[in-house]
Amino acid sequence: MRLTRLSLSFFIALTVNQSLVFASPLVDQQQIYAFYQTVFPQLPFKDYADGVYAIDADAKTSWLAINEFPPYEFELEEGKALFQKAFNNGKHYADCFSNEGIAIAQLYPQWNIKTQSITTLATAINDCRIVNHAEPLKFAEDEITKITAYMAYTSRGQKINTVIPSDPAALTAYELGKTYFYQRRGQLNFSCASCHVQNAGKFIRSEILSPALGHTTHWPAYRLKTGKLGSLHRRFIVCNTLIRAPIDKAQSPALRQLEFFLSNMSNGLTLNGPSVRK
């Protein structure tokens, strides 16, 4: 697919001087959806929840077939068991979350007024462990990914509802995530937007590049390449590796800010994770 003259003008408006131009989170969301409407005019907003499969009919057929017998079922069961396992003090993860941790994943990431920082579902899990005198889990390892997968599974059908409050610190964190998304870096001089806005729908080698809308709907995702569930932050790290850019660690402030921005972009889309991706 090629950018039309109209869609190219939208892209320029979105990307020029991103670090200098401030727009509200709602305006940002409206602008990027308007841009994608020029590129994918027949695609309903709700379909962006399916990621690249919303724009690749052949791949979607295979994806739906795989999901009939999802390869992550065993990991999902392990995640449920880990979520329900009591801490040494007799408390559970359910005691740390609203609605006992069921069907709440769509509310993350969220702004924590007390700490003046972004809380993701993964950091909330570790906060719960610390309160209950358990060692925090390593973000790069499987246990926390399995727990978040189970919590995401209980939230299927819920719509993303990331709230960016008017708190100046929250807006600054959001703007930093936005800047990260549009800023070119690495030896290849790519930004997230280079692939997922400017070239969304085009091929990179044998793969079609997905639009950024919907990027936070389906995680954790079972990667056919690795044979196991992986987190959204792990995917961020892989992307930075591919463009030979400095690597920010999982759940670092930079990647939480990026997730904050992307989740706002996908507000109103339905969660369908865990899912399967190549």
Strand content: 5-15%
What is the CATH architecture descriptor of the largest domain?
Orthogonal Bundle
Number of domains: 2
What spatial form do the alpha-carbon principal axes imply?
Answer: globular
The CATH class of the largest domain is: Mainly Alpha
CATH fold name of the largest domain, please?
Answer: Cytochrome Bc1 Complex, Chain D, domain 2
- What is the percent of helical residues? 40-55%
Report the oligomer: single chain
Q: What order do the strands of the largest sheet run in, or round the barrel if closed? A: 6-5-7
Could you write a compact summary of the structure shown?
The protein has 278 residues and is mainly α. The protein has helices at residues 5-15, 25-39, 57-66, 73-84, 121-131, 142-153, 168-182, 192-198, 232-242, 253-265; strands at residues 110-112, 117-119, 203-204, 207-208, 221-223, 228-230, 275-277. Helices cover 42% and strands 7% of the residues.
Description of the molecule:
This protein is mainly α. The chain folds into two domains: 5-69 and 166-277, Cytochrome Bc1 Complex, Chain D, domain 2 (Orthogonal Bundle), CATH 1.10.760; 73-153, Cytochrome Bc1 Complex, Chain D, domain 2, CATH 1.10.760.10. Helices cover 42% and strands 7% of the residues. It contains ten helices and seven strands. It has helices at residues 5-15, 25-39, 57-66, 73-84, 121-131, 142-153, 168-182, 192-198, 232-242, 253-265, and strands at residues 110-112, 117-119, 203-204, 207-208, 221-223, 228-230, 275-277. Strand 1 and strand 2 form a beta hairpin. Helix 1 (5-15) packs antiparallel against helix 2, helix 4 packs across helix 6 and helix 7 (168-182) packs across helix 10 (253-265). The longest helix has 15 residues, at 25-39. The relative contact order is 0.18. Residues 16-20 have low confidence and may be disordered.
